[in-house]
Amino acid sequence: MRRKPIDKLYGLPHILIGILLLGKYLDLFPVPNWLLGGALILGAVTFFLEAMKQRKKEV
């Protein structure tokens, strides 16, 4: 089975959040609060969508 392009990007929010957090709290580069907030929301949404998809598979 081939994976859909959106399935390949599942780990992207986690990587993005990690990079943004390192940049913000270690002062590697300036990170606006709205960008960090958007990344956290994106990560939460993808987490819950993946959990709902897994729950439907089990039933």
Write the layout of secondary structure elements.
Layout: H1 5-8, H2 12-25, H3 33-58
Helix pairs in contact: 2-3
Record keyword descriptors for this entry.
59 residues; mainly alpha; 3 helices; 0% strand
Outline the structure in words.
It is a single chain. The protein contains 3 helices and no strands. It has 59 residues and is mostly helical. Helices cover 75% and strands 0% of the residues. The two termini are 21 Å apart.
Stretches where pLDDT is under 50 for at least 5 consecutive residues are none
The whole-number mean of residue pLDDT values reads 81
Morphology: elongated
The major β-sheet equals: none
The chain-level structural class is: mainly alpha
The topology string of helices and strands comes to HHH
Q: Could you tell me the number of beta strands?
A: 0
Helical proportion, percent range: over 70%
In short:
With 59 residues, this protein is mainly alpha-helical. It contains three helices and no strands. 0% of the residues are buried.
